[in-house]
Amino acid sequence: MTLIDTLALTLVAVVVATMPVFAIVGRNRPRDPDVARRSSTVLLGFWARDWLMWVIGPVERAMIRARVSPDIFNYLGVAFGIGAGAAFAQGALSLAGWAILFGGVADVFDGRIARARGMASRYGAFMDSTLDRFAEAFSFVGVTWYLSSTPWGAAISVLAISGSLLVSYTRARGEAVSVSGTGGVMQRAERLVLLALAALADAAVTTRWGWPAGSVLTAAVALIALGAMGTAIYRTVSIARTLARQNDL
Question: CA end-to-end span of the chain, whole Å?
């Protein structure tokens, strides 16, 4: 059994073991503040995110007691993004999927530890958001490289990363003019989860059904491209309408 297989089985075991427990012990548990302040989506609902915060809670508290700097997790996120991109480029899809998942967890730890230790700042918020985009860009560069040999693969990947950047840009521009630019079906967390799961499942699914390698990943990237572009357009229209109404007052 390879290391990747061991990690996959471990993840499945953790999910199977902890979700029923959380369903019982978390029934009357207050919603996590970080979860409550973000909108729920089809892919990542409130319950799933509450479960994740509960699962990683012991590690988070240990990091806080050890006074680990939240900046470390920012840099880890970038490192995992670079690793994911390199793995995608080499066709090691399962390894890339794991790198994305670990990078996502590192990103969660960053903000939560900073707030718990009273270290939240504009500097931290800027670094967190910016380095997240670097990590995502590195990952998609690898995806584009991997899919470049397939029909329309590179074009779909470029649309996905373009849409992803536009989602972030529309929110930033909205905040710059004092208008909330949140909402949509394909925010960063959803993009990363979908990309990671597709990368992890690709080999098993394509082998089982006799499809070309990368078929599952290509479908996921196409869905990300469609959802991200749709989210960017939705935010653009929403912000523009709000500003137009304000100008009419």
Answer: 67
